Amino acid sequence: MCVVFTVILLHITVIPLKLSAASRPAEKYYTIISVNWGVVRIRAEIIEGMMVRLRVAGIKIMQKPLSGFKTGEKEEKEEDTEETGLSLDMIFSLTDDIIRILSELSFGHFYMKLRFGLNDSADTGIVYGFLMALKGILYAEKRVVLEACPDFGSDLVFEPECDLQILVGRVYRLFSPSYSLYKKVSAKKQNKVRVGVL
User: Fold this and answer.
1) pTM assigned to the model
2) What is the 3-state secondary structure (H, E, C) of the chain?
């Protein structure tokens, strides 16, 4: 029991939370979202055939078509949106909590490799020149890597490959603003439903 408590305490206070999002179409991985937090490793993938695959600690837990997640009737969703949708004043009231959450996030790295081609070779060259100029501007920032591979053929080509990582160093500092955010949204939605009923 003591060991379990120690592991949980380390996760909350010391071990950073790593959030990653990637896309690798060449490998048939259209979207990859990963959550790594010490011994906790969760990965969701959208692969070839628009299949969603969920892995926990490297073990496949679920695989089903993306369309299988669309449940419920559209009319019910529209009614829920009208009754409990986020209004402008609600968004402003949540700003402080959102800023507190965002302030705890830190940038890990961003990698982008783009194979592209326009119908006109001259236009492809112009865009490639712009991307290389942008790469030169970002050269000093080692956490950002930009690569471009122009295709001067006659076909339109757009094949991005990217990887983004966000770090949360002090996970325990997310608890208070997250709970406050949840309470405010729940209270606002309940008030809107009551007004609608009255």
Assistant:
1) 0.68
2) CHHHHHHHHHHHHCCCEEEEEEEEHHHCEEEEEEEEECCEEEEEEEECCCEEEEEECCEEEEEEEHHHHCCCCHHHHHHHHHHHCCCHHHHHHCHHHHHHHHHCEEEEEEEEEEEEECCCHHHHHHHHHHHHHHHHHCCCCCCEEEEEEECCCCCCEEEEEEEEEEEECCHHHHHHHHHHHHHHHHHHHHHHHHHHHC
